[in-house]
Amino acid sequence: MRKPGKVLSIIGLILSAALLVVGSYFILPRSQNWASIWSVLTGSAAAYFAYYAFHKRDKD
Length: 60
What we know:
Elements: H1 6-27, H2 32-54
């Protein structure tokens, strides 16, 4: 599986954070359980993109 590049990782990180905030804003008043699940899913996506955005790559 190809790893995302630095620019794509930063875009993914920003989108994940935006989805976390917007999704939690709309889901939280309706269901605390779904808000928790949403937070875990989008938080893990943000962590995935953050790892590749700030990870130093070894050039071959």
